[in-house]
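BUG: 3D viewer hangs when loading the predicted structure for this chain

Environment: internal workstation, default settings.
Expected: structure renders.
Actual: progress bar stalls at 90%.

Input used:
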Amino acid sequence: MIRPANWIRIWLAVAMSAVAAGAAFADETVTIGGSRVALIRPASVRASVILLPGGDGAIHVGERGDIHGLLGNQLVRTRNAYAARGLAVMVADTSTDLKAAVDYMATIKRPVTVIGTSRGTLRAAEGIARGARPDALVLTSGFLSPESGSSSNVMSILGSPSALPRTLVIHHTSDACKFTLPAGVDPFIRWSGGRARAKWLSGGAEEGNPCQARGHHGFNGLDGQVVGLAAGFR
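Structure tokens produced before the viewer hung:
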């Protein structure tokens, strides 16, 4: 039998844990160059990441870091998993200036890693071409090279690998999206001149449109592996 005094101590411990958990993951809305982004700032930050979702990139941020668009996107749905690893997380909108975003996150904590998925990899390349200088870059299910299936790709946007930071490519062996075919990975790695390396994943589930989040393109069923690789690369 637990005495009343012990119940009080247990209740206080639980309450304090809940308060601490809430304080560690406070979502907020920040304006970067006129664009609203969602920011998650853990109590203790060891590095920063900027997440660039795929699709049209419009996440429709509310007043308190709440996101109303692209909720199923692989990066959007796993944003709290990055924060749980001690990373300050910015989920950028399609109109966000990447250079300004990198500079902002650098004031919180370096290194700053940009993580883009699908069409977000194009936005990452465009931002780097315009002067953004993240410490590292992660490209998942990327529009990497002409062999990926699209004339618009990271290689064509950058032209040269000279501005490419240390880069990790995460790709599914069975990605069937016609714009991010697995065949595009090796040509990109060769083009990078040693700046990029690839990590292949397999398994998970394929449901619906092969270019959407519930397919291998969106690493359906493999979120933990993607986050572990991306969060650990800096």
